[in-house]
Structures are given as structure tokens and as C-alpha cells.
Design a protein that fits this description.
By secondary structure, the chain is α/β, with parallel strands linked by helices. 33% of the residues lie in helices and 16% in strands. The longest helix has 26 residues, at 218-243.
Length: 257
């Protein structure tokens, strides 16, 4: 039986062409309010002083393959996106573990637990959702690479855990909201997203995380990163409100107004 360009099986008869089956891999994702998990997070990495002089924005200067570059830690919040409420922030830092490898293992377990929360989900229901700012270009590739370097799990498991999630990078999701900033579409900065969706509040400033690490100011790193994740969640919620999203029915589809 022939297929059309979308992979659908078709039946041709006297009354014309009829679609009788649709490839399940092409179905739209169904967001089940009772079985959807989102992981908000933000990572911090250390870059030694000589590498800080390269013409890169701070996050893209942290090449995980270069000597001296390492994971400092991060803040994570796992919740149901339909019922976020006041989510807990889970801190994981290098100074609280024995090694970078142990730190990576503890973070890896957060992602694994996120996947486990979706056990029994149907094929068309959402996979684990990751949300943050710039996570598609820094956080996820960095985690994946450092995890491989330290061999914290089989390579295929590391890939499935970190790289098979649905990525919601707010730096890209926000492009349509701040189009006047650039003549062409371009990822939006954390500060611009905060200004657009939260108000006059700004991304935590002060010294860079690298300088804080050099001076042993770990409390400031924890406070700064925790505040950034709080802002990420607030931006996400503001986007939902501004989009006029309606409460879902129990079957995961939107109710009509």
C-alpha cells in the first residue's frame, strides 16, 4: 500500500484518497497533566585565567575539552509544569563532593530520576523537558562531554539521559517577544528576558563566578545561581501567562474558551 510524503498509509478508491493510518512517530506530542516532568536548571563551570581572554561570551568560553576547565556545580528544580507552585531548588556543588566525577554522578542521578518519573508514559506523551537559558549551547553539551570524559556511566546511557530530552531554551523561545532587539532572529540574553518578563529586576551581577571561585566565595556562587534559576522559572511562567494558555483537560488537550 503506498505512503504519502508524511509517512501515512493511503488507500485509493473510487471515492478518492483516504488516510487510514498515521505513523506513530509523526504524531503531535500529548502533554498529560498527570505525567509530564520539567527540569529547570543552570550550571556553572570554571575557566582558568589564561582562557578567559579569548573573544567569547562567558558561557561559551568554558570548553569542556580544554585543560583546567571543569564543572563547578549547579541548581536544579524538578516539577510538573502544570503544577509548579513554589518549587524547591536543589544545589549540587564541587566543594560538597570529593571530585568532579562524584559531582557529575550526583547531577546525572537528577536527570535519571526525572526520566523515572515518566515511567509508563505512552509513546505520544512528552519526554523529560529541560528548561533554562542557553542550555542548548552550554549546559547540556558541557554535562554530556564531562560525563563522557569521567566515564560516569556507559556512553549510550549518558547520551540517552542528557541528549534525548525535549529542550526548551528560553534564549530561543524568547526571540519572538523581543524582536526589536535585532534585525534578524538571535538568541536573547538572560538580562533581556528578565527585563521583558519580570520587570526592572536584573540577572545577579557582581564578580564573575570564576573570580568568586578564585577567592573561595562559594556562598555568593550558590546565591547567584539559585537566583538565576528562580528567574528562569518566573520567565517560563510569564511566557505561559502572556501566551494566554488555557487550563488543560484531563486528556491533555486545551479547553475551549
Amino acid at each position: 500500500m503506498p505512503k504519502n510524503a508524511n509517512g501515512r498509509l493511503i488507500s485509493q478508491g473510487e471515492r478518492g484518497t483516504t488516510i487510514i493510518f498515521e505513523n506513530p512517530y509523526l504524531l503531535m506530542v500529548r502533554l498529560n497533566p498527570e505525567n509530564t516532568t520539567i527540569l529547570f536548571f543552570d550550571l556553572e563551570a570554571y575557566v582558568p585565567e589564561p582562557l578567559r581572554r579569548r573573544p567569547r561570551i562567558a558561557s561559551l568560553a568554558a570548553n569542556p575539552h580544554l585543560p583546567g576547565v571543569s564543572l563547578i556545580g549547579g541548581v536544579f528544580s524538578v516539577c510538573n509544569p502544570f503544577h509548579i507552585g513554589d518549587p524547591d531548588l536543589d544545589h549540587h556543588w564541587i566543594w560538597e563532593t570529593d571530585s568532579e566525577r562524584d559531582l557529575l554522578i550526583s547531577i546525572y542521578s537528577i536527570f535519571r530520576e526525572g526520566w523515572k518519573s515518566l515511567a509508563g508514559k505512552k509513546r505520544d506523551e512528552a519526554d523529560l523537558i529541560l528548561a533554562g537559558i542557553g542550555i542548548s549551547t552550554f549546559d547540556i553539551p558541557f554535562l554530556y562531554t564531562r560525563a563522557l570524559i569521567h566515564s560516569i556511566a556507559p556512553a549510550e546511557d549518558i547520551y540517552e539521559t542528557f541528549c534525548c530530552c525535549r529542550v526548551l531554551d528560553l534564549a530561543s523561545a524568547g526571540i519572538g517577544y523581543i524582536r526589536e532587539r535585532h534585525p534578524i532572529p538571535h538568541p536573547i540574553t538572560h538580562n533581556d528576558l528578565v527585563k521583558r518578563f519580570i520587570g526592572e529586576e536584573k540577572k545577579p551581577g557582581g564578580s564573575t563566578v570564576w573570580d568568586m571561585m578564585d577567592h573561595g566565595d562559594t556562598n555568593s556562587i550558590k546565591s547567584r545561581t539559585g537566583e538565576e534559576v528562580r528567574q528562569i522559572i518566573a520567565i517560563y511562567q510569564a511566557m505561559i501567562t502572556e501566551n494566554g494558555s488555557v487550563p488543560p483537560r484531563h486528556d491533555g488537550t486545551a479547553e475551549s474558551r
